[in-house]
Protein: Protein-arginine kinase
Organism: Haloferula rosea
Amino acid sequence: MRFTTLMKHPADWMVGKGVDNAIVLTSRIRLARNLAELPFPGWAKKQQRRDALEILLPAVEGLSVMKKGFSKELDSLTSLQKQVMVERHLISREHAARGEGSAAVIERRQSVGIMLNEEDHLRMQSIRPGLDLRTAYETLSAVDDEVADRVEYAFDPELGYLTTCPTNLGTGMRASAMLHLPALVLSDQIGQVLQAVNKIGLAVRGIFGEGSESLGNLFQISNQSTLGESEQTILERLERVISQVAKHERDAREKLLEDDPDMVCDKIGRAYGLLKHAWIIPSKEALTHLSLLRLGGDLGFFAEEIVSACDTLLMEIQPAHLQMHNGAKLGPEERDTIRAEIVRSRLQTLEAPDISSIEENQEGDDTPDLGIS
């Protein structure tokens, strides 16, 4: 598969058809694995990295899930192409910075991806729309078993899978979900919720994972420990916490409509007006307003289709996607202009928010019991 073919359509998990992804956008499972007989990538010499790639690439390309998939060594891709893949969550920023001896193999629907010679020899991931960690895990576990039949993993009977970073020892598994939490942000409850999540040993990160900023009211929640716990224990705890956070967000949305419907209408109406009529808009501002349109779609201000439209735009207005769309490198000012043009075009037929969907609800407690455990 060519790069242009891979990028032609949004990934299955981006669209989320038939799935409740109003709050939990996506679920992801990532597994870290290394070869038994070769130095891990961070300590490997160039030829050792090439040796690892020669072992891994045919093994991964031959997987049943990768039939008619995308496979490229990273030094054959342009920096712009790699950045587009980062924006699509197909490779990490760290992987994009690597050159010779690294590769990416992506399933054609982009639901399964494998990075070769990133921090570890193998970084495998499965992404699903909505809260569906179990399916993501089952999918990736089958891939992992198939790879294990072809190569020998670095494994210790006591420590489990050996990884470059000690925090990945054991299962080598990171499970995470991307959540859209605009109501908790608007009601100033987000700090309480994230603090409660951190206290029980889970990590909260931005839209592109570790070290990234939270944009568009999107937050990624994941496990931090992988040693001494089974995959099932990790999944059960994460599912429980994510469900609780999603409930708090749902409650916060209802509470905002009860207590301050004018503010909700104003925020969503302003976002609608600006996105439909702006001629210059920076990335951060656009993501914030698209987040509010997405919230409006869930609250009934717009037709349901607006949610999937916003999800697609959240990806397409990223800097590298804009430049790929334009076919040339763009400066920040040019990107802001083209971003506004694309958003205006996509939202051309979107009618003004329907405020009749707001109904009086019974009063509730101002400060919810977080109950995250």
Summary: The chain is about 45% helix and 15% strand.
